[in-house]
Amino acid sequence: MKYIDEFRNGDYAAEVARRIHAEADPERRYRFMEFCGGHTHTLFRYGIPDLLPANVKMIHGPGCPVCVLPMARIDAAIELAVRHQVVLCSYGDMLRVPGAHRTSLQKAKSQGADVRMLYSPADALRIALENPQRQVVFFAIGFETTTPPTAAVLLKAQELKLRNFSVFCNHVLTPPAITGILEPAQQAGERIIEGLVGPGHVSVITGGGAYDSLARRYRTPIVIAGFEPLDILHSILLLVRQCNAGRYDVENQYSRAVTASGNAKAQSMAARTMTLRDSFEWRGLGWMPHSALRIRPEFADYDAERRFELSPSEARENKACECPAVLRGAKAPTDCKLFATVCTPDNPIGACMVSSEGACAAHYSYGHTR
Amino acid sequence: MCLAIPVQVESLLDNDEALVDIGGLKKRISLALVDDVCVGDYVILHVGYALSKIDEDEALRTLELFDQMQALQEELGASLESDGSGD
């Protein structure tokens, strides 16, 4: 397909890899974090780490929305489906993530709860229209990319004056997560990465300008990258060049889709329907201020957290699971005792093994087992 | 779930929707988040919604950069080879 094949061109890729080898200073180390789970997926799928010099290392970041959602929120979704008996609509990879006591939405479904996997929030709206006698809840998760589609269905539900539709909002924000990774290191006077492969599709919405202050504050170059193998290799080359030159700018490698200011229409729809939460819990990063969105009071009728009473969760993470450290880039999946032994894609213990964008699943699926 | 892909718009439908081709599969998507989409445009598709158009000029510019990179390498390679044969 146009704009895919060209960006998978093997000759170009070999040439860019040669450049990285030629320009990376053997005396330095280059640790680059790819924030986005989609980038992790491409890196492994195309064996990109094998093309890099030994001193250029990729570290996986927290950019998988399924992986960063804490158990308490999964338990709340299960409670909506089981105790409140709503039709719970969820993106597919959320269904298998374990909550407390090894339950999951999938297990709740097998025990009779009405849990439905969907591809688009528009499908949740359709289910609500087709089932006026049932309460339908859309389990909304994701970063800035996935927020505007949720906003679109909230606006549509209001326009249609739907009485049986609401959203369980778990949308999270990228800049606070980057801060959550880089701030502790800065405070400790350490450097954990030399550069960041910035999120591509998040930036389609936010615009590249959203990262300028982060690059400056943490003196860390950020290159916003597309998702084809050549995009990522090219971005690594641009990061190497910035490191060598002592620069820390935001560069936009994905200029065919990302502008400086992003998608203003999508931003405005999200701002009309959602607003910042004071604080939100992230798996691996803990409670972070102003790091997530809730539904605005004007849309309270469509806010599942207001419509349904939810119990406080007693969730406890499995102590042996290293997902929190893997999400912070502090450990590699292979550092976890459970990886590829107890924890596999067929029997995931932690969220990083469940989602195809999770670092552990990517390691496992592409043959990087022990 | 976060994966988004480029797709080409085949036709425009009512209710701010469009028909797209995903590797031979026809799918109805929403254009609620983008303005001025025309038939033939490529858009980034995510959870059933077009997030942005792909700028063809920018895509070609990036590819040109790789062309130049490779051309330069080939020139350098050729000149090294000719140096070698002259010895």
Automatic annotation (TrEMBL), chain A:
Family matches, as Pfam families: HypD (PF01924)
MF (Gene Ontology): 4 iron, 4 sulfur cluster binding; carbon monoxide binding; iron ion binding
Top-level taxon in the UniProt lineage: Bacteria
Biological process per Gene Ontology, one example term: protein maturation
Keyword Transcription found: no
Keywords: Iron, Metal-binding
Stored PANTHER family: HYDROGENASE MATURATION FACTOR HYPD (PTHR30149:SF0), HYDROGENASE PROTEIN ASSEMBLY PROTEIN HYPD (PTHR30149)
Family classification: Belongs to the HypD family.
This protein's name: Hydrogenase maturation factor
Organism: Hahella chejuensis (strain KCTC 2396)
Gene designation: hypD
UniProtKB/TrEMBL annotation, chain B:
GO MF annotations, alphabetized: carbon dioxide binding; iron ion binding
Biological process according to GO: protein maturation
SUPFAM superfamilies registered for this protein in UniProt: HupF/HypC-like
Pfam families assigned to the protein according to its UniProt record, in alphabetical order: HupF_HypC
Superkingdom in the source lineage: Bacteria
InterPro entries for the chain: Hydgase_assmbl_chp_CS, Hydrogenase_HupF/HypC
Family to which this protein belongs: Belongs to the HupF/HypC family.
Name recorded for this polypeptide: Hydrogenase assembly chaperone HypC/HupF
Record organism: Hahella chejuensis (strain KCTC 2396)
Gene: hypC
